[in-house]
Task: inverse folding
């Protein structure tokens, strides 16, 4: 049995507003449920969830999203994001770098990648979830999701669904400290035996953090990043 990646989740002071921004930018449906607001993905595009939190964003995120563009529309993607409420942000990018760094209405960083990026060619609009993380954690997620490793060089790793689409990548050291309480996490869905899937995740290197009501188990990956395992329907 393997877990399915349901969503990359973000804590948000205003989850409804942030979800509306991303839904409009990615042309996604919006589904409210007991845990917040879900923008469902599919076999090739990772889902997003926005959950209420009181923890304000005070430092750059440990993961951020990369949007792709083609030769005619990088400026269009940037302009659309700005019209929807994004703003330009400075994360130390160099003048010669051609990607455009923005912040969503909550300040979550996102990059609009130029069309010359061969790494994200064919990945769709949500091309990459770019994470701080060691090689060990990349291999952990390869095994958790049973997704092939599509990059493994110089401490950097990336996995991708067998169907293609969004890549999840880890940039190698140095790795920023884990934020507590977590404002970002991966949300997994187990359709079968929860206890058996928890045991499998623990055997792969996860650590148990807590068990919550509504069928949610909170664990941490080998780098200490929070992940949440759910059972049953995502809207249960």
Result:
């Amino acid at each position: 049995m393997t877990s399915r990646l349901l969503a990359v989740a973000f804590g948000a002071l205003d989850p409804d507003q942030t979800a509306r921004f991303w839904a409009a930018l990615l042309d996604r449906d919006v589904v409210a449920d007991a845990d917040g607001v879900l923008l469902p993905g599919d076999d090739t595009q990772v889902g997003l969830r926005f959950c209420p939190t009181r923890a304000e964003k005070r430092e750059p995120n440990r993961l951020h999203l990369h949007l792709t563009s083609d030769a005619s529309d990088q400026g269009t993607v940037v302009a659309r994001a700005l019209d929807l409420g994004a703003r330009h942000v400075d994360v130390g990018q160099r003048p010669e770098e051609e990607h455009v760094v923005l912040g969503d209405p909550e300040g979550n960083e996102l990059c609009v990648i130029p069309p010359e990026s061969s790494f994200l060619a064919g990945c769709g609009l949500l091309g990459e979830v770019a994470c701080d993380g060691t090689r060990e954690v990349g291999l952990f997620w390869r095994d958790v999701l049973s997704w092939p490793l599509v990059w493994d060089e110089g401490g950097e790793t990336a996995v991708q669904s067998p169907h293609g689409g969004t890549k999840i990548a880890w940039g190698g050291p140095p790795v920023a400290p884990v934020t507590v309480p977590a404002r970002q996490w991966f949300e997994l869905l187990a359709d079968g035996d929860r206890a058996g899937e928890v045991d499998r995740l623990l055997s792969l290197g996860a650590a148990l953090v807590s068990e919550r009501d509504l069928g949610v188990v909170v664990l941490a990956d080998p780098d200490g990043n929070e992940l949440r395992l759910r059972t049953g329907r995502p809207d249960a």
